[in-house]
Amino acid sequence: MSNSVRPVASAYAVPGTPFPDAVTLRADGSQTTLAAERGHRTTVVVFYRGTWCPYCNTALRSYQQVLFPELQSRGISLIAVSPQHPDGSLSMSEKQSLDFPVLSDPGNSLARALGILTRPTDDALAQQRERGLHVEEHNADGTADLPMPTTAIVTADGTLAWIDVHPDHTTRTEPAQILRALADLEVEATRK
Q1: Using CA atoms, how far apart are residues 84 and 125, in angstroms rounded to an integer?
Q2: Phi and psi at residue 65, in whole multiples of 5°?
Q3: 94: how many CB neighbours lie within 10 A of its CB?
Q4: Which of 85, 138, 155, 158 has the smallest C-beta neighbourhood within 10 Å, fewest atoms?
Q5: What is the average pLDDT across 149-163?
Q6: Whole-prediction pTM
Q7: Do residues 6 and 121 lie in contact, with contact meaning Cβ atoms separated by under 8 Å?
């Protein structure tokens, strides 16, 4: 893990446990919940830091181009979640031409429940501010807390089936990894 962030929790959620739910905001600012957006479908949930993060932009663009069509053909949903204001979600959605929901988790409730929430160190915050980035102005709750880049697969019944957490904010789960994990879960389900 980078020295620029501190984890808020001591452990990540583990597969086989219920996936948390929380009130979230759509890009238009209307309230929903993650469960309502998922419906009763297997869903890939991607946690990203915000529209200001170039690594997030690259990853979500790749997910739109490579992953989303594959998931759609299988009846699997894709949802992106960040702590930013809804207008940041709208900006991300429009800028990257995303066809999947981009939600705001204003209090980082989901990231906290999954154990993937971090808080930048004072030194990291000072460096960000020197570069003109004030994360707390982008986050809906006014804090600088951020989720670690994370991808999770949630089953139709709301169980966390797979999770890939990246403490290094410069790395992301590759689309091929996600598709491989889904294939492995399908094989496992047929054996039961």
Answers
A1: 17
A2: -75, -40
A3: 12
A4: 158
A5: 97
A6: 0.92
A7: yes
Tokens encoding 58: 């690259």
Predicted confidence (pLDDT) at residue 90 exceeds the cutoff of 90: no
169 vs 166: CA distance, rounded Å: 7
Nearest 5°: the CA angle 24, 30, 33 is: 30
Judging by beta carbons within 10 Å of its beta carbon (0-12, 13-18, 19+), is residue 183 exposed, middle or buried? exposed
Q: Cα–Cα distance between 80 and 96 in angstroms, integer?
A: 12
For 15-159, list the strands marked E by DSSP. 23-25, 31-33, 43-47, 77-82, 102-104, 117-120, 146-147, 150-154
DSSP 171: -
Place of tokens 């006014």: 142
- Give yes or no for residue 174 having a pLDDT over 70: yes
DSSP 148: P
Q: Are 32 and 103 in contact (CB under 8 A)?
A: yes
What gap in Å lies between CA 163 and CA 159, rounded to an integer? 11
Phi first, then psi, for residue 54 (nearest 5°) are -65, -35
Superfamily of domain 5-191: Glutaredoxin (3.40.30.10)
